[in-house]
Specification:
By secondary structure, this protein is an alpha+beta fold. Helices cover 30% and strands 23% of the residues. It contains 9 helices and 16 strands. A hairpin with a 4-residue loop joins strand 2 and strand 3.
Length: 349
């Protein structure tokens, strides 16, 4: 979301939102759809190589893609309808609506002492001294939430899922997701978390990716189940800086692997980075860095995902199509682009 949902203003997406980066889970392929002829020309052969060899299989894929295109066309109106309906949702743990320091791991609070935020080296020293790690170029992990808070949030998300059937899928790669924007959690808790803490971190650690000018974000929760959805395919995120926070510990395996950056795939010297998922810990990285989740071998894993965005970066190039954005106005739940005078107003931060 790129502004408070309680004070709606004009929002924008790049037109590629409606027909690009469509994920076909069965064949592990992201596709673009303009029309049937283009789709067959661009992707029929790739699909054959991945096992989609019969006319029936191809027809099923084509139907899936067309259905997703139609879903995206109505996504923003559906999101607005769901959000207005879900405003009546009553939290079973209303104390978590507002950020409180008791929800934050003491090591994170120690890391965020003002004198540790003077420069990058001092911050990295504080990170290492408080349970954090530097895993590779601009890949960091550190404790952030207490276990008690993680449990409260998981219970709240479970209750929200049971309380309403009217929910928008936050993305097409995980069908167990819940939009924290739609749930009303973003403009309270998460806005405060990013404004009061994470902007200070991204300003130092991701300055070359707009980390000093984060002005919007999208947040959701994903769930991995050994039997239903054990892993996540290789992809990159629609943001400038991403963070993934593991909310539970009742699972085995499921490490996050990070590889090259989108647009820099020729950097073959870059070694893959593998990071272990730990309850209450945040993994922070460049959104455009390709990554995937290894399969969990038992249990269920729940993660909070936040894509932090900077209009100063994405207004120059859309991260999803790699081109100058073709701006389209939407009702709500834009992707962090701004236009003209909307730059100053279009922000939840």
């Amino acid at each position: 979301m790129s502004q408070p949902l309680t004070a709606l203003r004009t929002e924008y997406v790049c037109s590629c939102f409606f027909n690009r980066q469509i994920f076909i889970k069965k064949y592990g392929l992201h596709v673009t759809y303009e029309d049937d002829n283009q789709f067959e020309k661009d992707f029929r052969q790739s699909l054959r190589f991945r096992g989609c060899s019969t006319e029936k299989q191809y027809s099923e894929v084509l139907l899936q893609v067309k259905t997703e295109v139609e879903r995206r066309k109505s996504y923003h109106s559906t999101f607005l309808s769901n959000f207005m309906r879900n405003k009546e949702y009553r939290y079973i743990h209303p104390e978590i609506i507002q950020l409180q320091t008791r929800f934050l791991d003491q090591r994170f609070l120690d890391m965020m002492q003002e004198n540790n935020l003077q420069d990058t080296d001092t911050l990295l020293q504080a990170l290492a001294a408080n349970g954090g790690h530097v895993h590779g170029p601009q890949v960091y992990s550190f404790p952030i939430f207490t276990k008690d808070f993680c449990q409260l949030l998981i219970e709240e998300i479970s209750n929200f899922k049971q309380s309403t059937q009217e929910r928008s899928l936050p993305n097409t790669m995980n069908f167990e997701g819940v939009s924290l924007d739609e749930m009303g959690f973003s403009c309270t808790f998460l806005t405060s978390l990013i404004k009061n803490y994470f902007q200070s971190i991204t300003k130092l650690l991701f300055s070359n990716w707009g980390g000093g000018a984060i002005d919007s974000f999208k947040s959701f929760v994903v769930q991995y189940d050994k039997d239903k959805h054990p892993s996540l395919s290789k992809h990159f995120d629609n943001g400038e800086v991403s963070m993934s926070i593991c909310l539970n510990s009742e699972f085995e395996a499921g490490d996050l692997q990070l590889e090259q950056v989108f647009g820099q795939e020729e950097d073959l010297d870059m070694e893959p980075v593998v990071v272990k998922q730990q309850m209450g810990h945040c993994i922070m990285h460049r959104s455009r860095q390709f990554h995937f989740a290894h399969p969990i071998t038992s249990g269920v894993r729940t993660n909070m995902i936040v894509w932090m965005r900077s209009s100063s970066i994405r207004n120059q190039m859309c991260p999803m199509c790699g081109q100058t954005p073709d701006i389209q106005e939407v009702q709500i739940a834009g992707d962090g682009f701004t236009l003209g005078q909307d730059s100053a107003a279009c922000s939840c931060l």
